[in-house]
Design a protein that fits this description.
Chain lengths: ~250, ~325
């Protein structure tokens, strides 16, 4: 097994806020890795840094042995890192097929011939079960369908690493089960998956290893069962829950 | 189901319209020809405006800068003794280079800031054309070598207008067009999925500047005299925006329908109430915003018809490939 992605000493500040501090973290080729932590811990910020949407204040991201931090997101996408958004962001007025076509036409390292593009995009739509919605505008889809569309669009770029930002949250148990199968299939296609997830059951079921973030710090790392019994992690989660109860009271 | 009509109908329609327009001078008087000439000018401006303003969603209030620049450059080149073809090419080239240069600072702005920035370009051009007297004749305007070119310029304008519509039709079905729509919907996501957004935005502005400057050159050849307010004034600046909005931005037929309706309305008002036309634009903008934000093309009566002939919105990239 080889390391496909490595974060070295990542810091990210927003004004005075330290969203990420000294994050060291590496991912093995072909694994499914989880990133968990309370709200505002910096998980999405980490994805933004990896995908190039924002630059780290300091530190480096190494992908397949090359530094990618500092490059634009469009370059990083064509090199092989694709993502979904926690708050879904499909191209609203474009059809589902056109959304996925964006990934096929622009997100790959090699542009497929024009004749094959619609076919390739259709295959990804069918993979996530949206084959019959191909010509619907994305804005008319349900939330679950929009999430699937985001996965299809990301898969259409032929990624080596797929970043999934809370794709399971808000789904029914049946939908969750289907999605878990999909993620396993994605892994079977040789793609490394890094997933941010609140639903612990899913993390336990899918992930080989998990990193826990809290206030921008990595507080634990290891197998899912190790991590959930870690006293620091329990404290972080319980502390957070007490905090939110106080807030709502 | 109607994929056949989708691919066959638009070319046939274009050929029919082109045929009628070319045969028209034999049958109608010069009044109608002048009207169609102006319609072609406005239509070209509206359709080219819509590539950046509608497809890509960046409201370019300064689109008439390219029209004026094309007109002035063509006039100056004609006065230097060059033939029309050379003069038009010079107008287009200068304008395209200008578009490429200003695109860099302008596209760092978004939304209202972009609209205002582009609007500022017009004032800049007006100041320049007023003050570079040796080149532009200053506020007195500039005349081109005299001669009646009304028939030739009629043909040229009609061809340019049709070519602009065809270009925008093809653009909407190209990969480049798909990227422009994606930029309109969510620029950051478009970039995250591999689109070189900065390059594409510049390209879109350069492409949009070409028909606008070409029609500017044809315009000055026809009227043989222009002054700064005539080409950098408020009316020519607002007309493409209002026409595209009235017809429906981001669609092929929108600028077409908008240009025809607005020029017709003005033709009626013009004779009865002079100086009313600028007010018309203001009133139109408010009314469109209030009652028809999608424009005529998306209204209940027109939409089914337009979709039927294959020129509606849902006939973009995916349906051709
Ligand atoms: N673009 C930004 N500008 C300012 N603050 C931000 C920005 N993005 C995230 N933050 C802040 O950084 C912290 C971490 O956010 P985020 O990474 O979204 O958390 P998580 O995904 O773990 O819930 C939060 O306090 C959030 O308000
Ligand atoms: Mg988040």
């Amino acid at each position: 097994m080889s390391t496909v992605l490595e974060c070295q000493g990542i810091y990210r500040f927003f004004g005075g806020l330290q969203a990420l501090q000294a994050i060291d973290f590496s991912v093995e080729q072909g694994d499914i890795v989880g990133v968990i932590g309370p709200n505002g811990a910096g998980k999405t910020t980490l994805f933004n840094v990896i995908s190039g949407a924002i630059r780290p204040s300091s530190g480096r991201v190494i992908f397949q042995g090359r530094r990618i931090s500092g490059y634009g997101p469009h370059r990083i996408c064509t090199w092989g890192i694709a993502r979904t958004y926690q708050l879904v962001r499909p191209f609203a007025s474009l059809t589902a097929l056109e959304n996925v076509l964006m990934g096929v036409c622009f997100g790959r390292s090699r542009h497929p011939p024009r004749k094959e593009r619609a076919h390739l995009a259709m295959a990804e739509l069918e993979f996530v079960g949206l084959g019959d919605k191909a010509h619907e505008p994305a804005e008319d889809l349900t939330l679950v369908q929009k999430k699937s569309l985001e996965i299809a669009r990301a898969m259409a770029t032929e990624p080596k690493i797929l970043l999934l930002d809370e794709v399971v949250s808000g789904l029914t148990p049946t939908e969750t089960a289907t999605l878990i199968d999909k993620i396993r299939e994605i892994q079977a296609r040789g793609i490394t998956v890094i997933m941010i997830e609140h639903v612990l059951k899913v993390v336990m079921e899918l992930c080989k290893s998990v990193m826990v973030l809290h206030y921008g710090l990595k507080i634990a790392e290891g197998s899912p069962s190790e991590v959930v019994h870690d006293p620091e992690v329990i404290k972080a989660y319980l502390g957070d829950r007490q905090g939110s109860e106080e807030n709502s009271a | 189901m109607n994929t056949g009509s989708r691919t066959v109908l638009p070319p046939i329609a274009v050929l029919c319209v082109a045929g009628i327009l070319c045969a028209l001078p034999r049958f109608v008087g010069s009044y109608v020809l002048v009207w169609i000439f102006l319609l072609a000018v406005y239509l070209t401006l509206a359709a080219s405006y819509d590539i950046v303003g509608g497809y890509m969603g960046y409201m370019n209030l300064g689109h008439s800068t390219f029209f004026g620049l094309g007109a002035y450059a063509t006039a100056i080149t004609l006065n230097m003794g060059y033939p029309l073809g050379m003069a038009l090419i010079a107008g287009v080239a200068i304008s395209a280079v200008f578009a490429g240069l200003v695109s860099y600072p302008l596209f760092r702005l978004r939304g209202a800031y972009f609209a205002l920035g582009t609007f500022g370009l017009i004032s800049l051009m007006e100041v320049l054309s007023n003050n570079l007297r040796g080149l532009t004749g200053g506020s007195g305007g500039i005349s081109t070598p005299t001669g009646d070119h009304s028939l030739e310029s009629y043909y040229l304008a009609v061809i340019t207008a049709i070519a602009t519509l065809v270009m925008s039709y093809l653009l909407a079905r190209s990969t480049f067009g798909l990227a422009l729509f994606a930029i309109r919907e969510d620029e950051e996501v478009a970039r995250a999925f591999g689109t070189p957004t900065a390059l594409y935005k510049s390209l879109a502005l350069v492409i949009a500047s070409i028909p606008a400057s070409l029609i500017g050159g044809i315009y000055v050849w026809n009227v043989t005299y222009i002054s700064p307010p005539a080409v950098f004034g408020l009316e020519i600046a607002l007309s493409p925006v209002v026409m595209a909005m009235l017809g429906g931005t981001g669609t092929l037929m929108g600028p077409f329908i908008g240009a025809i309706s607005l020029t017709s309305v003005q033709e009626i008002l013009w004779t009865k109430l002079p100086y009313f036309h600028l007010t018309t634009y203001g009133v139109m903008m408010v009314l469109i915003g209030l009652f028809m934000p999608g424009g005529l093309v998306r209204s209940r009566w027109l939409k089914p018809l337009i979709d039927r002939v294959g020129l509606g919105e849902k006939t973009h990239y995916a349906n051709v490939s």
